[in-house]
Specification:
Layout: H1 11-24, H2 26-33, H3 44-51, H4 64-80
Helix pairs in contact: 1-2, 1-3, 2-3
Length: 85
C-alpha cells in the first residue's frame, strides 16, 4: 500500500477526487494516499477518511444525464446478451 494511484471507477469517484484536490490540494491528497492504513485501497472515500474530510451530500448524487447514459449502456449490454429462441 501507499504507492498505488487513486482509484476512480465511476463518476462519483471522479467527482469526489476532484473535490478533494480542489479542497485540500493535489499535494495533500497525494500524501494522504501514502497514509492509507491496512489493506484498504486508495479510493477517494478512503483518502477522504485519512484527510478527515466530510464529503458534501452533493457528491453522492449522479447528474440526470450521466445516470441516463449509464442506464442506456446497461440496456445495450443486456440486449446483446438476450437469448434468441
Amino acid at each position: 500500500m501507499g504507492n498505488e494511484p487513486m482509484i476512480t471507477e465511476n463518476e462519483r469517484d471522479r467527482r469526489t477526487a476532484a473535490w478533494l484536490i480542489e479542497t485540500y490540494g493535489a499535494e495533500a491528497v497525494a500524501e494522504a494516499e501514502t497514509r492509507i492504513a491496512g489493506a484498504r485501497k486508495p479510493y477517494p472515500s478512503n483518502i477522504a477518511k485519512v484527510l478527515g474530510a466530510s464529503l458534501p451530500e452533493a457528491l453522492k448524487r449522479t447528474e440526470n444525464a450521466a445516470a441516463r447514459q449509464k442506464l442506456a449502456g446497461l440496456r445495450r449490454m443486456l440486449d446483446g446478451k438476450a437469448v434468441k429462441t
